[in-house]
Queue: 3 jobs
Job 1
Amino acid sequence: MSRKNLRFGVLGVGRIGKIHAENLVNRIPGAEVAALADVFADELARVAARLNVTATYQDYRQVLELPEVDAVAICTPSDTHKRVILDAAAAGKHIFCEKPIELSVAAIEEINQEVAKRGIQLMVGFNRRFDPNFLKVREMVQSGKVGTPQVLKITSRDPAPPPEHFIRASGGVFLDMTIHDFDMARYLMGSEVTEVYARAGVLVDPVFEKAGDWDTAIVTLAFASGAMGVIDNSRKAVYGYDQRVEVFGSGGMVTVRNNTPDSHIHLDQTGVHSALPLNFFMERYTESYLREMRAFVEAVQGTQPVPVTGQDALLAVVIGLAAAKSARENRPVKLAEIH
Amino acid sequence: MSRKNLRFGVLGVGRIGKIHAENLVNRIPGAEVAALADVFADELARVAARLNVTATYQDYRQVLELPEVDAVAICTPSDTHKRVILDAAAAGKHIFCEKPIELSVAAIEEINQEVAKRGIQLMVGFNRRFDPNFLKVREMVQSGKVGTPQVLKITSRDPAPPPEHFIRASGGVFLDMTIHDFDMARYLMGSEVTEVYARAGVLVDPVFEKAGDWDTAIVTLAFASGAMGVIDNSRKAVYGYDQRVEVFGSGGMVTVRNNTPDSHIHLDQTGVHSALPLNFFMERYTESYLREMRAFVEAVQGTQPVPVTGQDALLAVVIGLAAAKSARENRPVKLAEIH
Amino acid sequence: MSRKNLRFGVLGVGRIGKIHAENLVNRIPGAEVAALADVFADELARVAARLNVTATYQDYRQVLELPEVDAVAICTPSDTHKRVILDAAAAGKHIFCEKPIELSVAAIEEINQEVAKRGIQLMVGFNRRFDPNFLKVREMVQSGKVGTPQVLKITSRDPAPPPEHFIRASGGVFLDMTIHDFDMARYLMGSEVTEVYARAGVLVDPVFEKAGDWDTAIVTLAFASGAMGVIDNSRKAVYGYDQRVEVFGSGGMVTVRNNTPDSHIHLDQTGVHSALPLNFFMERYTESYLREMRAFVEAVQGTQPVPVTGQDALLAVVIGLAAAKSARENRPVKLAEIH
Amino acid sequence: MSRKNLRFGVLGVGRIGKIHAENLVNRIPGAEVAALADVFADELARVAARLNVTATYQDYRQVLELPEVDAVAICTPSDTHKRVILDAAAAGKHIFCEKPIELSVAAIEEINQEVAKRGIQLMVGFNRRFDPNFLKVREMVQSGKVGTPQVLKITSRDPAPPPEHFIRASGGVFLDMTIHDFDMARYLMGSEVTEVYARAGVLVDPVFEKAGDWDTAIVTLAFASGAMGVIDNSRKAVYGYDQRVEVFGSGGMVTVRNNTPDSHIHLDQTGVHSALPLNFFMERYTESYLREMRAFVEAVQGTQPVPVTGQDALLAVVIGLAAAKSARENRPVKLAEIH
């Protein structure tokens, strides 16, 4: 292989780590996987064999010591992100880290300062920005096809709630689920959120209430531009993964449909039938996972800043914290109250 | 014609009065138009000639004196509604009145008490309830096709703002425009609204600000059932009259598309193109105007209560007043604060 | 009523006669119904009462004698059309006649000559020309939106076969059912058909075979312009009345969707579901029946030729006869072989 | 890499060869590329470098001599297919060959006999069978979702004509373009074609006439089952690559939409706009190229017959020859006349 390839250590080969490792090995020109790390030896061996990677380690720090590793993809559990990022930054590796990098403002600021000091690149895995449909919406908004954006609408519904232990560790619906929509809101509207009002409830499963969380929410956003937005979330849509956005403005409107496994239309005596949305994020965002990692590789190799920064991670968390506070206190909350 | 026909006096033959008069003359079995009234003599004569109605009066009170008139359709300017309703009730006529019957709680309660005392029927013109698409949504919700309703979404955008004098007399966006959506929310969800949060702004035209009004709004609703809802409004959608609803629940989701003048799909080198939504309410709700008047006639003749009552008018206004208060004070407002 | 109204005698008040009579009474400015005729006295009385028409006759010839009748709408059984047309022409009445006016070339030519001689107007009920969707397709073709038309596709499927006695008297699928599509082909393409190849079979019900008829067919058309077309027919689509057209050309393509009773979209665990096409022609073509009669009234009153002439009737029948010959002999048949 | 991988020689690394080579290297478990061949040394070197393949040859016969090569993917020009297949068969290699394997019945039969004698597997590249949408249609037909299939409709339009030299060498529209549709017809309907009638013309570009070819065609098919079908083709759809199928039967209908690069819907003052179909086959059938090669690898490794055989190639060519004869002689042609 060529000398100029960006050589990755993939840290964590669980569900999402496998996706990134496979994309880096097979589908991203200019990248290769030099080492894999995971605490689970069996899974590590299986993935390594399949991808033909020989260097494997159970301790991620061993990967950070390898001089041939230029960058890491951090796919370890969320509560380890800060530690792994700081270690990787100290080792001078460029960093792609899955979202969320951290759940508190202080922790993210510490990360961002450390990264800035080391002069490395840090990209955060808000993969939806790279989805061809949402990308098209952004392009149309930016090129003026809807005029001045006035109203943003995002519907984001999961097909089924996560397991209870996940809910308890997730940071709550706004930091775990809606955080993607908050990032999307900033991305699509090209304006910062200044205030939120969140109405949240437990309509799907009492387990959320026991965990001090909510499963259903409607969040109103105010943007610095004067525009408004609304996000509606549910932890359970029986018909699948519902992911829609709409931007309305002075010149028109643009929206996208959900993705489906096929486009068949079937008519019989009972009605017209077609395929449900793709279920779940692994299928729905296959293409965006690939494109985001390509973007990371291109940014690092081109010595340009990466497209989703630690600052983006910070701002999404700030909105999430404001939304949670708003829902608890049933009043609009300005972001300035949080940070 | 048959003796049992319900004989109408149509009071006011402007835009909406003409629609009702024509429907009553030509398309509603069991109804006929016995008299027309309007202060503008020329227009009155034209409509009367076209519809072959011989009894015409410039003063609506003369119609109320006619013993052969069983019912009136009140299509006079909104600020006359209360007076005409009270006069018609005193004359013992059944009443169909265009929305809004009044803009204050006290006035509507006075009307409702008077109507109850006289033992007549009063129906309010929330015509959208009779639209075949929205009716289908309600039927599916009521028959359990979406399970327990959890989230309601309504998008309601006008093609263009009304003239300034209309804006100033309208009672504001929430009582003039969103009031239809508030009624639709109660109708579709089968549960009462208990609290609202409205974010409103002037993004379309400064004339709204001068009139102390807004042109763009997002309103979050809490229902007694625990469900939530959101309405987004704009006074100006350049692509036409955008009227969509969606009900999401534990068992699925139901939504409807906008109506278009035709279903053509045109593909050329630049893209795939199809027809814009029907523009404006006269075209969009043609069928619902017809069906609501049929429903009124059937209810009166069947001696059953009419399907949209003075109580419905009251509750929509209460929500509207709460929304306006919420927007002004930027906080959620419980309906109990209003009434 | 105004003196200038076109006064109609409606001859035959069966299914289609009722539609025309009701439209003429209630929904067509400039027209009125002066008399009704039908051999069935009871039905005649019912329709007359409902429409408030006092002059009724069991013998249509009595209507033709009325001096106040300007025009007739012939809705009697198909096998009486020729006789009624000739009588009406002799009486100097303008004629709207349901399709088919006759099934043989000779009979139609006799009718057309007689009509020409009398100086009256004859319009044939190819109502689909007046459907808003098909009209839009024609407008787009004529205004050059698809460039030079190259390929026409028509799908026309009935929801269920007619009764056996109807099949036996129908003239066969090409003269009874496809004849609408043949007329539509000429109308949409703006070019005459010169040759057809029809492949036909009995795939739905053996009753068609017993009657010497077919229930399924694919007909290839050659147009004088060099363009081609294909029509596919079935007597039974379990999902309803399937009526689609597509015109493809050097500059693009235009097509239309089927009409549905509502636009709801329902998602549940099993899929995405929506409404079947309107079923049957009475519902599907409600608007086109109204518009065709308006067009007849406007043409006669404007002293312009009517938009669907006896010549149009003749040409559709010639194509139908060629198609039947083609299917029987399994070879392409030039229209010049027929007429 | 694992010992059991199927090791490929990819013969020809032009447009389609690159796709297969890349899929085999990166995306097909159980396969690897052991050698590449192409007469153009520069392109060969570029592809080899990119895919990290070290063994490259300008003469494909050198690849056939490599003992480590188990199978070949033949992507050389169509007029070399027969010779390369026979050489590969003689060398005992399993063969995947791009369509068409040959254009004459005699040549294909010779190939099939040779392949059978050598006991190797031969798969033909009718990639559309592996498209997720068409696959879904087939599954629904086979599982009875449309009842007994009665009518097949295929629309297949290219975005632009091929260059003149390609047209002259292509074997004509029916063997070059419609051949895919003929294979699809057999595949979807599960019944053999017995007779065809083709109407063809030159409506797009006179170059087709000069080459003794056509650019526009409508082909009627009769199936052994009694069902019928129709294919319409054009060499030039300005709006892109139009690939639709529809199967209609006694129990319903199933169809699929064209694939688009994204699902955006844009509304502005001029209309509703969305994305054109993917253009061209490289983009449209990306997924099916991958899936067909996977199916080949799985079949060979599983020692099962491959899913698209030399017999399938033969039958598609027979239908194509019958269609060409039908178009020339303007009469229906039975397949028995050809073979």
Job 2
Amino acid sequence: MTEKNIQVLLARRPEGQVQTSDFKIVETPLPDIADGQLLVRNHYLSLDPYMRGRMSAAKSYAQSVNIGEVMVGGTVGQVVASRHAGFKVGDHVVGFLGWQLYGVSDGTALIRIDTSGIPLSAYLGVMGMPGATAYVGLMDIGQPKPGETVVVSAASGAVGSVVGQIAKIKGCRAVGIAGGPDKCTYVVKELGFDACIDYKQGRLAEDLAKAAPKGIDVYFENVGGPIFDTVLTRMNPFGRIPLCGLISQYNAIEPYGLKNVGSLLINRIKLQGFIVSDHLVRWPEAFEDIGQWLKEGRIKYRESIAQGIENAPAAFIGLLAGKNFGKQLVKLI
Amino acid sequence: MTEKNIQVLLARRPEGQVQTSDFKIVETPLPDIADGQLLVRNHYLSLDPYMRGRMSAAKSYAQSVNIGEVMVGGTVGQVVASRHAGFKVGDHVVGFLGWQLYGVSDGTALIRIDTSGIPLSAYLGVMGMPGATAYVGLMDIGQPKPGETVVVSAASGAVGSVVGQIAKIKGCRAVGIAGGPDKCTYVVKELGFDACIDYKQGRLAEDLAKAAPKGIDVYFENVGGPIFDTVLTRMNPFGRIPLCGLISQYNAIEPYGLKNVGSLLINRIKLQGFIVSDHLVRWPEAFEDIGQWLKEGRIKYRESIAQGIENAPAAFIGLLAGKNFGKQLVKLI
């Protein structure tokens, strides 16, 4: 057990591309805990695209991280000291303790988890925020009907991979969009999508016409930019677009101009931006279903694991560039 | 009674701006009617932005007008000959008999109207398709709550003027966007909006900040383009955007690129494209409410009336350029 805490702080706000020098890694003493608090040794840190927004001062749905503060992030770990009645030493917990080895909590938003059947890290992926995001966005906003075609971008990622697998379970045609042949092979062969388009081949419109010959009823959007624009040309009347992310735009200094807005009107499309934390009431049902599908082998997942907290910044930069393959984690122990 | 029919045909598909030479005006014999048909002398023709889409071959929600066919359009008129059991000579009717003095109908989509309390022309405006559009878009998609701020573009137009007045009736702050000081004065002084911004002044962002100091909860979109982009920067969390039209784009050869798509995500906005004919089930309630508000003097309207069928093309071109003031009609009698 390390006697020191290691933390990754936001050193400055990035302009355009995030750089490792936007972060600062510091060693600090282990924090003391007061009555009602507990200390958690984090085992895994989750890296997620939303963190890019928290690095900016721009208005967003959540508070920015201040310069000099520990970067925010989801974590799983184990309680190592407790003066909180609800948690005891040895408990496994999932929460938002940030980019650091140890975190102090008063129990707020900290959840005790059962790791007997499900690996600890899965609580940051399919059984965590990304899994709930896929479930709520697809089921509640996308409302897929059997026989419809569901397209999802960033299809090999933590959210997209679950979206397509749920679409299949619900009787839809699932088409992924991903970057590179390896990801596409994985999406089709391992995850069981009907098709996956490698957007890096530069033929997205033609490939979409082939992969979604009856048009697109639900487009689960994670990326934005020119991919979004091209998908809009293939939407069916009364299509739905759960707008979950715009990762292609997060580093952009000048945002992409979306041209095919007319498709939203002509096709009477419902587009809804959403943040999964607005839908906490739906999480229990999401995890009940996903947990069941995991046990039945109907949902699979993959993790990209960076080793050591000092590698978190580089792994995060890689995530924004699509270098991860499945859920991006940092192993902290 | 004219013994000849005069019709406006689509002569060719416009490229960019519509021109009068895209139309052809012809004189034809009065049509005979068969059993089950009736002949209507049209009194007013409605000119509406959607007609621009029908002139194009591009995929849209409705069939294009073929070259050489009579332009489609809503009309009100009077039955002058009938071999249809449901209509007799002298009945006033509203329907879609197109850009012509006389139209034959088998009764499909033709509705007998009561002109005792409401002027005939109103059935092409507040008590017709534009009124239903305003009602359905605002009430069903916009779902305004008392105290919220509703912004509507093309605010002096047939749809926009009703949107803002309903917003006021529902206890909202109503802010219009229109082109020019005369329209803005009308929107505030006569229609009773709380504010109206003249976008031609080129300070839309600043003026919106002043006119909607608590942000925008509902944006009823009729125009698209840079106005849409600017409004997106002022949307509140959980805002709604009924997407009714994109008139600024209909003549565009290269569509405007919408930059602030990120606002839809960050603010978890629900945007829904809609066409009022998909919501026929809602029309009776719309007209019951609007009819009541008209009688109570709570809804006002204005008409721009072009004289004579031969002036329909120029009036339509003016409509696309925002030269009308209120509902654009052509008087045919």
Job 3
Amino acid sequence: MDHAPGDTMCPRYQQAVQILGKRWTPLIVRTLLPRPRRFSDMTTIIEGLSDRLLSERLKELESCGIVHRHVYPETPVRIEYVLTSKGRELEQVVEAIQKWADCWDEGTRN
Amino acid sequence: MDHAPGDTMCPRYQQAVQILGKRWTPLIVRTLLPRPRRFSDMTTIIEGLSDRLLSERLKELESCGIVHRHVYPETPVRIEYVLTSKGRELEQVVEAIQKWADCWDEGTRN
């Protein structure tokens, strides 16, 4: 990595963590990795996530260019959420977390 | 990764994200990657992090086996916080976030 980690805090890292560390966000990103999703698909997959919070998180992710809200002009209108290229590149982060989680499943402490 | 991401939520991923996604935690882990740190080193490096919250986070990280609190029996007593092997393996997560953050620095919005 570009920055020697730890001796000073990298503002880019800090900013990324501020976006990605929000509750539900890493779950939403993971859900969108394989394919675009409708709003209701996401609340089905992510147990406990309310409509209000999903809506809030999606707006945040749109505003920082991670998610695109695609409106298909059909009748009835169809809306899907899709990762942008910036969003798709979060796959490496999701995979790193998954790998760590699989390796250190509960029970195996240090 | 072991699990097809997205169609169902992997409970291990969800649990990892619950630990790692807490405010300050990814900054604390990053700070401990290069070397053990004293409490006051960490509050110096991580701007805005209060003693109370650092103490709380370190206890959480100890309880899930990511951080070890090392007490050197000297006079005065010296206490350092060090990543366990489980904690050191978070380097891959920190690096993935850093890489993503460096690549998508503000301004470059898909």
